[in-house]
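Example 4.3 (complexes with small molecules)
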Amino acid sequence: MTIIDELRSLEREALAAVAAAGTLDALEAVRIGYLGKKGSLTAVLRGLGALSPEERPEVGRVSNEVRVALEGALDSKRTTLQHAARAERIAAEAVDVTLPGRRRPVGRQHVLHQIVDEIVEVFAGLGYRIAEGPEVELDYYNFTALNHPPDHPARALQDTFYVRDLSGDRAAVEGESDVLLRTHTSPVQVHVMESQKPPIYVLAPGKVYRRDVADPSHLPQFTQIEGLVVDEDITFGDLKGTLEHFVHAMFGPERRVRLRPHFFPFTEPSAEVDVSCAICGGQGCRTCGGEGWLEILGCGMVDPNVFRYVGIDPERYTGFAFGMGAERIAGLKYGVPDLRLFVEGDTRFLHQF
Ligand code: DAH
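Answer. The structure with 3,4-dihydroxyphenylalanine bound is encoded below.
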């Protein structure tokens, strides 16, 4: 066997060993076996010196070819094995960080806002527009222009939050302030009639304040929805029809509506409106206190005196007004026995709506 044959066979053997090496360590062993200090190819290369000058160039060329081929094969196999080793390590070290996930609680509109929106929707369908007024109000709008006599009980200190300016020279003595937290949304009627000409069809939802201690049926701050219509030829029949439409839309077409005579300073005649009890259908039960009816709002025909305060001609125009408590409506609609639940912010309660 010539030395060239020997080199070629060594090459085949070495390339096969490279191909067979399954790990980096095995590959390194192959490299050392052929190209290391004591490697078999190294031994052949070392022997070159002993060759005759005629043999040397050809053998030198072939042995160099073999060395280059082997190094190339080693390099590419090493790369392949390194990639495989890395992939294997990544797979082995992988940690499953999948967690059930943290749920973010989804908020929702407060039940009172839902109710106000629902009521607004009913009246928007009848062509009403939304009106607003200030919560810090003048006595004039809250009482005087609404035809309250000076000694009306609602003006008493124990019923109304008066606002005193303690900073300047207006530092009023308690009870002498003409600034207050509105006790109802009716003053919005006055603002609207001062700034708009009939025909007027408005709905005014908003917060109101009274000096009450919170209990199942009272809140010191609550929500009212005021309605006002001023036009030619508006009658008590229009008021009744409007309220029946509202009650049916809000509580269902099977509910009946009853108007009881009442008194409000700013309407004449005035009435309180009852809706038939949903539980007993009017027979009388615990829910309605044996009455068969539940009170839901106050209403009446706008008193001509109020028209005079705002400069609307009571000979030409008539109108009706109504006011209701959103908490009360919501309480009736959902059978909530204690109005305080609406303002306490307990999400276990609120998430039911
Ligand atoms: N403002 C009255 C209250 O708070 C409710 C009310 C009654 C409003 C009759 C009205 C009305 O517009 O006509 O008790």
